[in-house]
């Protein structure tokens, strides 16, 4: 896995990332940190990556279990340390899963498997942060 990060120049703190799979995304800083608020912050991208990793796992586990999952949303709330390095100290994942006749136990098991076994991003963040989750189910 590879990626390249390029700074856009002296007018701000905009960075452009190019992934080995050929995708491009931007990151910027807050105005009080020299940025222009043109894109997400790098730490927001880290939190987003953890949410994407977990959501991917949950959907894949449910689909492999032949459950009729139609939508999955993960809302993340992260708290950071007040001193440098300002690592995440608490992260809450709120899973909202939609499907037809989905057993809540299957969804909760998928979330638990993601957090405890499959999600690499959560495993890394759990080294500094308390990871919690909740699950809501919506009938399709």
From TrEMBL:
Checking Pfam families in the record gives: OsmC
Q: Which InterPro entries match?
A: KH_dom-like_a/b, OsmC/Ohr_fam, OsmC/Ohrsf
| PANTHER family, A to Z | PROTEIN YHFA
What is the official name of this protein in its record? Peroxiredoxin
